[in-house]
Amino acid sequence: xxxxxxxxxxxxxxxxxxxxxxxxxxxxxxxxxxxxxxxxxxxxxxxxxxxxxxxxxxxxxxxxxxxxxxxxxxxx
Length: 76
Known about the structure:
By secondary structure, the protein is of the alpha/beta class. The protein is 20% helix and 25% strand. Strands 3-2-1-4 form a four-stranded parallel beta sheet, with helices on one face. Strand 1 (6-10), helix 1 (15-25) and strand 2 (29-34) form a beta-alpha-beta unit. It is globular and about 35 Å long. 21% of the residues are buried.
């Protein structure tokens, strides 16, 4: 994998995303797609179900690690 690769991680404020994102950032650029800000990372804040809102997060991204999920059945 190239050091110049940009990886998009969804759900980076969650338990697994909170470990995966920083680990990937040791060798790559990491961008977060999240409803909340992710400190230390470029974050596109949007609901994963809103296609128009999430579209900019994918610009110049080579790999997506999808870790976002709905836990309790509510959307907020």
